[in-house]
Amino acid sequence: MTGRKEEAYFDQAERLYCQGNKTIASIAKIVPVSVNILYKWRLKGGWKAKRRAHLKNPRDIAFRMRRTLEQYLAQIEADAGEAKLNPATFEAINKAVAAIRQVERQAVDLRVMAVEVMAVFIEWLKAQKLPQGELLLLGGRIRAWFRELE
């Protein structure tokens, strides 16, 4: 029974834990899998390390910051009929927007730098006169690395 559940729910549970920043207990309420099985999956799949990596990714940081800003804005809309925007909230929103822009620029810069470095590396590889099989293997690894970078 667990095998079928793993096939059906492992990926969803992993996404919720690693990218959704959900607890095992909250995931157990979303997917029909016991807490104990989810803990086993977390260990088996290395979810803790994946979550840490996800939290350090500049694009993910920008996403979380944008989500926080959206929550601020939703609160402002909810309070619109009752009160005016106070200076502290206005300042917090401005700081959040500036921080999001900075993080997004860094994320783009990292990708641009990676592409530039890989272009130089590929030219260097071509000059090495490596066997075709080795070039194909390296090319596959480079493509896999770029997929991870996205």
Q: What do you see in this structure?
A:
The protein has 2 domains: 2-54; 57-149, no CATH class. It is flat, with a radius of gyration of 22 Å. It is 84% helix and 0% strand. It has 150 residues and is mainly alpha-helical. The mean pLDDT is 76.
Average of the residue pLDDT scores: 76
Largest sheet geometry: none
Unreliable parts? none
Give the total of domains: 2
The helix content is over 70%
Radius of gyration: 22 Å
Helix/strand class: mainly alpha
Quick one: overall form? flat
Defining traits:
150 residues, mainly alpha, 84% helix, 7 helices, 0% strand, 2 domains
Fold blueprint:
Elements: H1 2-18, H2 24-30, H3 35-45, H4 47-56, H5 58-79, H6 87-127, H7 132-149
Helix pairs in contact: 1-3, 5-6
What's a concise summary of this model?
By secondary structure, this protein is an all-alpha fold. 84% of the residues lie in helices and 0% in strands. The model has no long low-confidence stretch (mean pLDDT 76).
